[in-house]
Amino acid sequence: MHPSLHTLVRPLILSALGFCLAGGALAQEATIRKNLSERLANLPKIEEVSKTPMPGLWEVRLQGNDILYTDAEGNYLIQGALVDTRARRNLTEERLEKLSAVDFSTLPLKDAFVVTRGDGSRKMAVFTDPNCPYCKRFEADLQKISNVTIYNFLYPVLGKDSTEKAKNIWCAKDRVKAWEDWMQRNTPPAGASCDTAALSRNLEFGRQHHITGTPTVLFTDGSRVPGAVGAAQLEKRLSEASSKR
């Protein structure tokens, strides 16, 4: 082939190959979606289908960010963790952490009340329900943490009494005192009234970001921890998040 002709044709061949490969992946994804949806009527909506590092294994991300795995035809479905034994990494766990990350800068901080300890240099946000026993335990561990700013988002998901207490705390003249009196000393917040639209916005934000339980802790690096973690683990996560800023 003439050199100049080769120069023109080779990129076209490579480009066509690229489109063929992409088309093959899209066709495979379509097959997986079709077969799983038709065969499993109660399967939640499939949000994404993508290849994994393991040959022949595909990741299926469902609505709500649940992760399943399947073969190239959608004939088999696997629930569990995918682990890279060479790197000793839990790929499923890493993927879920990435999916659940929340950009700290997008938090509606005006809808939280703030507790500052020490110089407040480290930051975290907590979605919390006043009637959640794990939140009370977590609050006790928070007393051991210094140099932190805590944005508390009232997130009443445990019923009408939770909503009522959250309203009274939010409308209190001193929100921090009302919160700490209840969570640390079991002194119920006094009845109060004000604009409580912030609580509705918190619930909506939580739904959008799949915050399904309390407490849920969000860190400045985008990571989150669902559930009450001890002071040692919390200290570790705060230090890790601060070092990434």
Automatic annotation (TrEMBL):
InterPro entries xref list: DiS-bond_Isoase_DsbC/G, DiS-bond_isomerase_DsbC/G_N, DiS-bond_isomerase_DsbC/G_N_sf, Thiol:disulfide_interchange, Thioredoxin-like_fold, Thioredoxin-like_sf, Thioredoxin_CS
One GO cellular component, as annotated: periplasmic space
Disulphide bond isomerase DsbC/G N-terminal domain ranges (all copies): 25-93
Family listed: Belongs to the thioredoxin family. DsbC subfamily.
Taxonomic classification: Bacteria, Pseudomonadati, Pseudomonadota, Betaproteobacteria, Burkholderiales
Species annotation: Tibeticola sediminis
Signal sequence region: 1-27
Compartments in which it is found: Periplasm
Alphabetic keyword roster: Disulfide bond, Periplasm, Redox-active center, Signal
Domain Thioredoxin-like fold: 117-238
Function according to Swiss-Prot or TrEMBL: Required for disulfide bond formation in some periplasmic proteins. Acts by transferring its disulfide bond to other proteins and is reduced in the process.
Protein's UniProt name: Thiol:disulfide interchange protein
CDD domains listed in its UniProt record: DsbA_DsbC_DsbG
PANTHER family: THIOL:DISULFIDE INTERCHANGE PROTEIN DSBC (PTHR35272:SF3), THIOL:DISULFIDE INTERCHANGE PROTEIN DSBC-RELATED (PTHR35272)
